[in-house]
Design brief:
- Helices cover 49% and strands 13% of the residues.
- It has 647 residues and is α/β, with parallel strands linked by helices.
- The strands form 2 sheets. It has a 10-stranded mixed sheet, with helices on both faces. It has a two-stranded antiparallel sheet with strand order 8-9.
- Helix 6 links the parallel strand 6 (213-218) and strand 7.
- Helix 9 (281-294) packs antiparallel against helix 11 (335-345) and helix 25 (615-628) packs antiparallel against helix 26 (633-645).
- The radius of gyration is 27 Å and the shape is globular.
Length: 647
C-alpha cells in the first residue's frame, strides 16, 4: 500500500509540475496584450520627460523619453491615433552636428532595446558631437500599439514527408492567430509600413525643431532611411547605412546567400588545422544535406540537455521533475529543418566560427548537438508583426521571386528556408496588400557611408554594390570576415565620427581575423597537465610547464593542445571558483602576457583582483580592457561600479 501511495504521489507531483509549467507559459512568458491606440490624445501631441536609463551592465545615462502622436494611416479620413516612442540623448557640444536618428533593423526591433546593448557606448560617444534620437518604429517597443505577437511557433519535428508544406502551415497558422488578435482590437495592420514610418520620422523631426538630420540605419533601418531620403531629401544632411538593404532587393536570393559559404571555403584553405578535416565547407554541407534528404535522423536528447540558460528557474525545475519520468526527448531532423536553421543563423559571427565543426560532427554521425539547437529553434516566438506587414506592403518584383525559386537544387539553402515568412499567404493572414511603388529603387545625391561585412549572409555584399551605383556620393567601410552582427567596433566608430565631421577622405577596409572552432576535440588536455603540476609543485612550476608547451605547440598543425585564450581563461575561473585567488591571478596574468591585445584577458584579470579586494589593480585592468575594446560593456559596468557605487 505504501508503494502505491508513493507512486500516486509522484504522479500527482508530475501533474502539478505540468500545470505549473502551463501556467507559467500563459501568465509570465511573452509580451502582454497591447493598448490598441491613443485616441484620447490629439495627433501632433508631443510628450517628453527626463529619465535615467540603465543598460545591460547597470550603467546609467540621463535621457529624454518621449512619444509623438501620429495617425495610424495617413491615407484614410477616420483613423486611430497611435504613439511613436523615442529616446533622446542630448549633446553638450556647443557647436553640435546635425542630430542623428538611429533606425534599427528587423523590421520590428525597437531602438529602446538597442540602447541597452553594447551600442549604448556608441550612442554615448556620438552624443559628444550631436543629439541622438533612438526610434521605436511604429508597432515596436514603447510605441502604442506594440505589435509583438504573443504566440510562439511549434514547428513539428516528428515528420519526414511533405515537410516544407507542414512547416509552412504551422507558420501560417501562428501568423493567423497573431493577426486575428490585432484585427479584433481595431488595429489597421495595413498602416504599418515603411512609407508611414518614414513620415513618422519627418513628423518627429519637426516636433523636435530640427532643421535637418543625419540618418543612421542598421539592416532594415537602411531601407527606411532610403525611403526618408526619397521623400524628404532637403532635410537630410547625410546618412550611415550599416548592413545595407535596398527596397527592391529585400527578397534574398539563395545564390547570393551562398556566397558566404564560399567565403568560408576560401578561409579554410589558410587554416592548416581545420583544413585537415574540412577542406571545403560547401562540399561537406552538400553531403550532409543529401544524406538527410535520403535518411532523416531520429535523435534522442536527454531532457535536461534540452533546457537552455534562457529558460529560467521555474521551467528548469519543471524539466528536472519531468525528466525523472521521461529522461529523453525525441525529435526528427530533416534537410528542411537544418536549412531553416542555417538560413536564420547565417551571418552571425559565432555561427560562422562553428559551421565547419558543426557540419563535420554531423558528417561523422553525431547529431545530438544539432538536436539541442533544433529544440530551441522549433519553439521560437514569432517576430513582431511589423516584420510581416512591412515586407507584405512592399511586396516583391515577380521576376525576383521567379529567380529565387529557380534552380533550387543548385543551392545549399532553398528559397523556402530563407523566405518562409514572406510568402503571399502570410500577407493575406495579416490582412495587408502591396503598396505600389514601395519597392522601387531609390537613387540620390545624399552623402552616405556604407558599412558592410564580407561574410554577412543576411545583407550580402551585392546590396552594397547596388547602392554604390545609386548613391554616387558615397564612402565605404568594408569589414573583412565580419558577419551581420559584427559591424560595430571602435575602428568602425572612429570612421563614423570622421564621416560625420567630413574628415573621412577615402573608403576604408578593416581586416578582422577569424578563428574557427576546433573541428575535433583536442588530443591532450593542457589544463589537466598543468593543474596536476600546480597541486604538487606550485603555480610557478605550472606556468613554466605551460610556457614550454606553448612555445613548442603554438604553431601546431593539428588539434593537439588547446592553447587558446579561452581555454586558459576557463582554468583561471575554475581556480576562482575554488577560492584559489592568488593562483587564479597568476593564470590570468599569464594569459595577458600571451595575448596582450585581447581585451577579455584583462577583464578576467580585473575580476580576479576584485575577488581579492584589490580595487586599484582591478580598475587598471578594466581600463585596459576598455582601451582595447571600447564596446566591452561588462568592463564598463564593473568600472562604473568601482568608481561610483562601491566608493
Amino acid at each position: 500500500m505504501r508503494i502505491i501511495k508513493m507512486i500516486l504521489a509522484l504522479i500527482g507531483l508530475f501533474l502539478l509540475m505540468i500545470g505549473c509549467f502551463i501556467g507559467y507559459q500563459l501568465i509570465f512568458s511573452g509580451p502582454t496584450k497591447t493598448q490598441p491606440n491613443t485616441n484620447d490624445l490629439a495627433i501632433g501631441s508631443l510628450n517628453i520627460q527626463e529619465e535615467i536609463l540603465i543598460n545591460n551592465w547597470n550603467e546609467p545615462l540621463p535621457v529624454i523619453m518621449g512619444s509623438l502622436i501620429v495617425p495610424e494611416s495617413r491615407e484614410e479620413k477616420i483613423v486611430n491615433h497611435i504613439s511613436i516612442g523615442f529616446i533622446k540623448i542630448s549633446t553638450q557640444n556647443p557647436k553640435p552636428l546635425a542630430p542623428i536618428f538611429f533606425l534599427p533593423g528587423g523590421p520590428g526591433t525597437p531602438g529602446s532595446d538597442i540602447f541597452r546593448s553594447d551600442y549604448f557606448y556608441l550612442f554615448k560617444k556620438l552624443s559628444e558631437y550631436a543629439d541622438i534620437i533612438l526610434l521605436d518604429q511604429r508597432g515596436t517597443g514603447r510605441s502604442i500599439p506594440n505589435l509583438s505577437c504573443r504566440n510562439s511557433l511549434a514547428l513539428p519535428t516528428n515528420i519526414t514527408e511533405n515537410i516544407a508544406d507542414q512547416l509552412f502551415n504551422n507558420v501560417l497558422e501562428a501568423c493567423q492567430e497573431c493577426a486575428e488578435e490585432f484585427v479584433k482590437m481595431g488595429i489597421n495592420l495595413q498602416g504599418y509600413n515603411s512609407l508611414e514610418s518614414a513620415v513618422d520620422i519627418e513628423d518627429l523631426r519637426k516636433a523636435l525643431g530640427y532643421e535637418s538630420i543625419t540618418l543612421y540605419g542598421y539592416s532594415y533601418g537602411t531601407v527606411l532611411a532610403q525611403h526618408y531620403i526619397e521623400l524628404f531629401r532637403d532635410r537630410v544632411t547625410n546618412a550611415i547605412l550599416t548592413g545595407p538593404l535596398t527596397p527592391d532587393l529585400g527578397l534574398k536570393l539563395p545564390n547570393e546567400v551562398q556566397r558566404q559559404f564560399l567565403g568560408i571555403d576560401s578561409l579554410l584553405k589558410y587554416d592548416t588545422k581545420a583544413n585537415k578535416y574540412v577542406s571545403s565547407l560547401t562540399s561537406l554541407m552538400e553531403r550532409v544535406h543529401d544524406d538527410l534528404q535520403e535518411r532523416p535522423k531520429f535523435i534522442e536528447i536527454p531532457l535536461m540537455d534540452a533546457v537552455s540558460g534562457d529558460d529560467g528557474a521555474i521551467p528548469t525545475a519543471i524539466f528536472k521533475t519531468i525528466s525523472i519520468f521521461k529522461p529523453n526527448w525525441k525529435i526528427t531532423l530533416t534537410k528542411t529543418h537544418l536549412q531553416m536553421m542555417m538560413a536564420q543563423y547565417i551571418g552571425l559571427d559565432r555561427w560562422i566560427r562553428r559551421l565547419p565543426s558543426f557540419y563535420y560532427q554531423m558528417n561523422e554521425g553525431s547529431y545530438q548537438p544539432v538536436g539541442n539547437i533544433l529544440r530551441n529553434f522549433r519553439r521560437q516566438r514569432l517576430p513582431n508583426a511589423l516584420f510581416f506587414t512591412v515586407n507584405g506592403t512592399a511586396g516583391y518584383d515577380p521576376q525576383r521571386w521567379a529567380d529565387a525559386i529557380s534552380n533550387e537544387e543548385a543551392n545549399l539553402l532553398s528559397h523556402f528556408s530563407i523566405s518562409f515568412g514572406r510568402y503571399p499567404e502570410i500577407n493575406k493572414a495579416f490582412k495587408i496588400s502591396k503598396i505600389p511603388g514601395l519597392n522601387d529603387p531609390i537613387q540620390s545625391d545624399v552623402e552616405i557611408l556604407l558599412i558592410a561585412g564580407s561574410l554577412d549572409g543576411r545583407t550580402p555584399l551585392c546590396n552594397t554594390d547596388t547602392l554604390i551605383r545609386r548613391f554616387p556620393n558615397h564612402k565605404i567601410v568594408r569589414v573583412v570576415n565580419a558577419g551581420h552582427n559584427d559591424l560595430m567596433d571602435e575602428d568602425i566608430m572612429l570612421d563614423i565620427i570622421k564621416f560625420l565631421k567630413s574628415e573621412l577622405a577615402f573608403s576604408d577596409t578593416l581586416n578582422r581575423p577569424i578563428e574557427f572552432d576546433a573541428i575535433v576535440p583536442h588530443k591532450f588536455s593542457i589544463l589537466d597537465t598543468i593543474d596536476k603540476i600546480r597541486r604538487t609543485d606550485g603555480i610557478q612550476a605550472a606556468i613554466d610547464t605551460y610556457q614550454v608547451i606553448y612555445k613548442n605547440y603554438k604553431d601546431q598543425d593539428d588539434y593537439l593542445f588547446d592553447l587558446s585564450e579561452g581555454c586558459l581563461n576557463s582554468y583561471g575561473y575554475q581556480l576562482l571558483a575554488l577560492k584559489e585567488l592568488d593562483d587564479a591571478i597568476e593564470i590570468f596574468k599569464l594569459n595577458s602576457e600571451i595575448y596582450p591585445e585581447r581585451y577579455n584577458v584583462y577583464n578576467s584579470l580585473g575580476e580576479a583582483y576584485l575577488a581579492a579586494n584589490d580595487s586599484n589593480q582591478a580598475e587598471r585592468c578594466f581600463k585596459k580592457a576598455i582601451d582595447l575594446n571600447y564596446f566591452d560593456g561588462y568592463s564598463h559596468g564593473l568600472l562604473y561600479r568601482l568608481q561610483h557605487v562601491d566608493h
